[in-house]
Every structure is written in structure tokens, then in C-alpha cells.
Design brief:
Keywords: Cytoplasm, Exonuclease, Hydrolase, Metal-binding, Nuclease, RNA-binding, Zinc. It is a single chain. With about 550 residues, this protein is α/β, with parallel strands linked by helices. It starts with 5 loop residues before the first strand and ends with a strand. The mean pLDDT is about 95.
Length: about 550
């Protein structure tokens, strides 16, 4: 008798880390499964550890191999950490994509703004709607979050139903969009849920996330009280916050000037999809300088310290249209994502030096998270009563705390997994049954590299210790035809005794060449290796670091 189909789950990104979300669900047996992918996001490079790397994406080699069995990709919402890798990686998969209207429109605008973006069709599913994707029936359940049209996905199969929460919170007054659909989630619990795959981002924080409506009130008070110009920076995708800022500007009789391409793009999509109906028209940056100081509010990109975004340019006093002076205010209506603290701190310090007043969530309620705190996680468990809970979207501590909370709330089975773990969800006892390939891809300029790429590894070494370049011209008889050329990049000019490094390295090259037997001098590879070792050793002796050394041998 044939074995019944199994339902399996594997995270390929977004577990043990914040961002780069990609989950896959499989239905079938070990020889043949149909696959469904949920989200395909990025995380951002860190100049200190990954110099020159802009974006990090999940390794999709497993899905490429299973491409003929990949039924589709479903998007929970349109944040970069959930959909930012699609333009680069979809050409390797070419599967159907399903999203609700706002996510699809924002994705289309993103493609239009990107040079040479492939044509990527998206099937629009109504909020609250259902769609058959191969053997999976996927239901889009509205949840509150910091972008319109966020959805938990109820994935219905013959084996049972799984709830993939995506990013969510409980906000009874969300300003834009529908609140989290408690009624439908309770119905799923009543019908029986085999697994809950849940957001852990705020699992370490007690209580509940405050509402967007409370933030809106605070912003009105601050903008009304401001004397000079006001700039507000927030995540461009947080349309509810943009609407709150617009309401505050109107209450204070100020014009809103939108500054930054990402902000312009979201405003355009939000107007097209009806999320800014009734909100006054915004102005372009050219009019900023012509408006009285107490009649203008600049809505800026750059809340995370991005070097090319509007706020960084304003802070460095090199924005062509927008300036801030003593007595003006900047409201950071955002939370600094871990890893961006230095960049944001640098912008704040530059603004303070210009006499600008800085307002952050440390001193006023100008930002709330879009993720559930511990009481909200307990509510979700109570509503849905899953047989199994798997924490995702979080670092090790977040996953651990979410798991502990779930056990205390009486969830029968709780599994903490890592990227690449293949988990059987049903039928029968759940558990980790295998592993699928997982890893990272680095976007380096316009090239995708894997994490072991020579370029990335070498650049990290060069960032730490510079590089030495040596060129040697040899005669056919194995003699130096001319003085060696030495070029040191990123290496101190002098050692502690004040001797020039150029001279130290030059002497080491000459003495190494002259000290070698004739036969070795006539072998370009052997000569280059001997010189490379000598140069690294002498620099290490005088500096304490071993830089990469490139030696070019020319026979004349």
C-alpha cells in the first residue's frame, strides 16, 4: 500500500537571523514532492565584515534543482526582508508569484525603478482570499503590521493546515488596513491546526506593542510645538506613519515635502491603491526653500543611516535642495535595526553639530514595532491552539524565548530549527527528518557570489591588512634585469623606528632573489612564491600583520 503524503517545512533564511526570509513547504513522499515557497527576502551587508557587499540573499540551489516541482512563490507582504531578493533570484526559478494588490503594485514600481529588471508576472489575490497553488490551498489572512496588506498564510493541504504568520502584531487601531483577523484565526484553531510557524522578532519583550494611533497622536503634538523647520524620517514602506505625518502637518498648517526616491515610490503606490485617499497632495523638494520655516515638513528617507539616502545628505550638508539649521527639528520615527547603530549615530551627531533638535523613540512615542510582544504571542497561541509551534524570524535568543513561551502556554510540541533543517509536520509525530542545502549569496555590485567566494574572502583580508604588490624583471640567466617595483596599499608608510616600509620590502625582495639558487630564480612560479613569503614575513615582523602579497615575474 502506498504511504500517505507527508507535509514538510524547511527554512532557507530568516532563522537564527533577522531578515533574508525564505521558507518552503513540501507535499508528497521522499522521492517526489511539490514545493511552495513563502517570501524571498534580503538582509543588508555590513561594511566592517563584508566590505563592498550591499545585499545578502538566501542560497536557492535546492529550489533550482527542484524547479519543475516548485508550484509558486507566495508573498506575505512587501518589506525588503521578505521580497527584496526576487528581482535577482526569480530568473533562476521562473515560478508563478502570488501577492495581494499593494505588494504587487510596490513590486512593480520597484522593478520599474531598477535598470534591466526582468519581466516578472505577479498574480494578485484579494486580501482574505484563497488560491490553489498545486496541491496547496493558500488563504491570505489579514494581520496588522507596519506596511499595508500584511498577511498570515493558512496553508491548507490533505495532511492538515499550517499557519505561517509572516510579520504581524495585534493593533486594534492600525490607521491603515484591517486589524489582525482574530475571528478567522480562532476558526482555524477550532478546525484544527497542525503547526504554527511564528514570528519571534519581539519574543524577548513583555506586554503588547503600542498602536499606530498612539504614535500618530505624539507626532501631531511634536509637529504643532515645533518652531522651525521639521524633518521626519521613517521606513518609507510604513504608509500608516506617512499618513500620520501628513495629518500632523495639516494640523500644524505645514506643507509636506517628500524627499528621497524610495519615499516617492511608496507614496505613488499608496495613492494608486487608495491608501492615501483624502490625504493632501505632497510637494516636491524644489519648493522646500521657498516655504516659510514654520510652514514646511520634510518627509525623508534614511532612517537607517543609509549613506545615499536623503537624511545622510542633509546631515552632511550636501543635499541640493534641503537644509536644516539651528532651531529646526528631526523626528526619527523609526527603530534602528541592529548593525545600523554606527551609521545612524553619525547622522545624529552631524545634525546636532548643526544645532538641530533630535527626537527619537528614546524620549517620545514616535515609533512602535510591527511585531508581536509576549502577550500577543500568547493570544495567537490561545486563538489557534496549534499541535506544533516552530519559532522563525529571529536570532537564537528570540527563537529560544518564543519556544519557552509556547511550552509554558501548553503547545504540545515545540521545535527550534536552523536554516536548512527539513521538518516533517505530519501525518504522525513531527520532527526534523533531514537537511536541505542552505546558505548565503552576496550581491557584489551587480554580481551574485556565494559566501565562499574568493573576492569576498580576499577583500575582507585586504580591508584588515592592506596589500603588497611586487613586480620583478628577470633575465633568461636568472639575474635581476632591473630594480624590483614595490607598491604597498593600505600599509603604514613607516615602521615604529621610522624606517620607510617601501625600503624594508624592497630590500627583502632583492635579498630573497639574490639568495636563491640559479635554478629556482629561472622558475617564475617558484621565484614568485619565495618572494611572496619573504614580503609577508618582513611586513609581519615590523607591523604585526600579514597582508596578501601579489608578485608578478617578467622574463626579459
Amino acid at each position: 500500500m502506498a504511504k500517505p503524503d507527508e507535509l514538510v517545512f524547511a527554512p532557507l533564511g530568516g532563522v537564527g537571523e533577522i531578515g533574508m526570509n525564505l521558507s518552503i513547504y513540501g507535499l508528497g513522499n521522499r522521492q517526489q514532492r511539490s514545493w511552495l515557497a513563502v517570501d524571498l527576502g534580503v538582509s543588508f551587508g555590513d561594511e566592517e565584515h563584508l566590505p563592498g557587499i550591499d545585499l545578502i540573499m538566501p542560497d536557492i540551489s535546492f529550489l533550482e534543482k527542484e524547479r519543475k516541482n516548485l508550484m509558486g512563490l507566495v508573498l506575505t507582504h512587501a518589506h525588503e526582508d521578505h521580497f527584496g531578493a526576487i528581482i535577482d533570484l526569480w530568473p533562476k526559478l521562473k515560478c508563478p508569484i502570488y501577492a495581494t494588490q499593494f505588494s504587487a503594485a510596490l513590486f512593480e514600481a520597484k522593478c520599474a525603478a531598477e535598470r534591466n529588471a526582468p519581466k516578472i508576472p505577479v498574480t494578485v489575490v484579494p486580501s482574505g482570499g484563497r488560491v490553489d497553488i498545486g496541491p496547496f490551498n493558500v488563504e491570505f489572512i489579514p494581520v496588522a503590521h507596519s506596511i499595508p496588506e500584511s498577511h498570515a498564510l493558512a496553508i491548507h493541504t490533505d495532511v492538515g493546515t499550517v499557519l505561517h504568520t509572516g510579520d504581524w502584531k495585534i493593533d486594534p487601531t492600525p490607521i491603515i488596513g484591517r486589524p489582525t483577523d482574530e475571528k478567522r484565526l480562532r476558526e482555524l484553531g477550532d478546525a484544527g491546526l497542525i503547526a504554527l510557524i511564528g514570528d519571534s522578532t519581539n519574543a524577548v519583550r513583555d506586554g503588547r506593542s503600542p498602536s499606530e494611533a498612539e504614535v500618530a497622536k505624539t507626532i501631531v503634538e511634536l509637529v504643532k510645538a515645533a518652531k522651525g523647520r521639521v524633518a521626519v524620517t521613517t521606513f518609507a514602506s510604513n504608509v500608516a506613519r506617512l499618513k500620520a505625518v501628513a495629518a500632523a502637518a495639516r494640523a500644524a498648517d505645514r506643507e509636506v515635502v517628500v524627499v528621497g526616491r524610495a519615499m516617492e515610490r511608496v507614496v505613488q503606490v499608496a495613492r494608486e491603491t487608495g491608501y492615501l485617499d483624502g490625504v493632501q497632495n505632497f510637494r516636491s523638494p524644489e519648493v522646500y526653500g521657498h516655504l516659510p520655516q514654520d510652514k514646511v515638513l520634510a518627509l525623508c528617507t534614511g532612517s537607517q543611516g543609509e549613506p545615499r539616502a536623503a537624511l545622510a545628505r542633509i546631515a552632511n550638508d550636501d543635499h541640493p535642495e534641503i537644509t536644516l539649521n539651528r532651531g529646526d527639528s528631526v523626528i526619527f520615527s523609526s527603530r534602528t535595526i541592529p548593525g545600523n547603530e554606527k551609521a545612524v549615530g553619525s547622522i545624529i551627531n552631524n545634525l546636532v553639530l548643526q544645532g538641530v533638535e533630535i527626537i527619537t523613540d528614546r524620549d517620545h512615542l514616535v515609533h512602535v514595532s510591527g511585531h508581536p510582544r509576549r502577550d500577543e504571542l500568547r493570544d495567537m497561541i490561545a486563538w489557534t491552539r496549534p499541535q506544533l509551534l516552530i519559532p522563525v524570524h529571529g536570532e537564537a535568543l528570540h527563537l529560544h524565548e518564543h519556544a519557552k513561551l509556547a511550552r509554558a502556554a501548553g503547545v504540545p510540541r515545540v521545535l527550534v530549527v536552523r536554516n536548512g533543517d527539513l521538518v516533517k509536520l505530519g501525518p504522525g509525530d513531527p520532527g526534523i527528518v533531514g537537511e536541505v542545502p542552505s546558505g548565503r549569496l552576496y550581491k557584489d555590485g551587480n554580481i551574485l557570489e556565494d559566501s565562499k567566494s574568493r573576492a569576498v574572502v580576499e577583500r575582507r583580508r585586504m580591508a584588515f591588512s592592506g596589500c603588497a604588490f611586487v613586480a620583478i624583471a628577470m633575465t633568461a640567466q636568472g639575474e635581476l634585469a632591473d630594480d624590483p617595483e614595490v607598491d604597498l596599499v593600505g600599509i603604514p608608510e613607516k615602521n615604529r623606528a621610522g624606517e620607510p616600509f617601501d625600503d624594508i620590502v624592497f630590500d627583502a625582495v632583492v635579498s630573497t632573489v639574490e639568495g636563491l639558487p640559479k635554478a629556482r630564480r629561472r622558475d617564475p612560479d617558484a621565484l614568485a612564491e619565495s618572494v611572496r613569503r619573504a614580503v609577508r614575513a618582513v611586513i609581519n615582523e615590523h607591523w604585526g600583520k600579514k597582508p596578501p602579497c601579489l608578485v608578478h615575474v617578467l622574463t626579459v
